[in-house]
Amino acid sequence: MPKLRKIKNEIKCARQQIIVSRTDIKGNIVYCNATFLEVNSFKTSEVIKQPHSLVRHPDMPKTIFHIIWSIIEQGLPIQAVIKNQTNNGEYYWSLMTIKPQKDRDNNVISYVAYGKQAPNAVIHTMESLYQILSKIENEVNIDAARQYLESYLREKKMTYAQYMKHLTKNHKIRCLCDFVKHAFIK
Prior knowledge:
Layout: E1 5-7, E2 10-12, E3 19-23, E4 29-32, H1 34-40, H2 44-47, H3 62-72, E5 78-85, E6 91-102, E7 108-117, H4 120-139, H5 142-155, H6 160-168, H7 176-184
Antiparallel strand pairs: 1-2, 3-4, 3-7, 5-6, 6-7
Helix pairs in contact: 4-5
């Protein structure tokens, strides 16, 4: 497995590393791969049946998680840039694709998240936006932060999903499926 790079308290994953986790419909971890464990400095027994918010970084605005949940609960996938905090207090940024898993009757039974290292330019953009959203959440409330985000996206004439696609379009790997093809299919 490629080595993680650490710069101060930030962990940078190698291009080939994919973080995978699966939760039940309440957000409790039911599976995670070796990369998830390595990056987050956990043992399997420490994370199974625990809420995925176990790795949530305090810098992440709640507004983003409200958007994620509102989309995946509809049975739709979403891509998001997430800052997570490891078990030993370090952090990492990942470009996550979260997909609902469904049973034969089309009911959502779990959620699978696949993540790769977020590009530096995307981190820079999202970090600034997340700081503003967090400040609004703390000083006013989450509804005001959501209104700010909606206004921000309206100015760009994009939905959240379109904005994520726009941010990653100038990078060699556009989505996780392209990343997997690039990393594993030669």
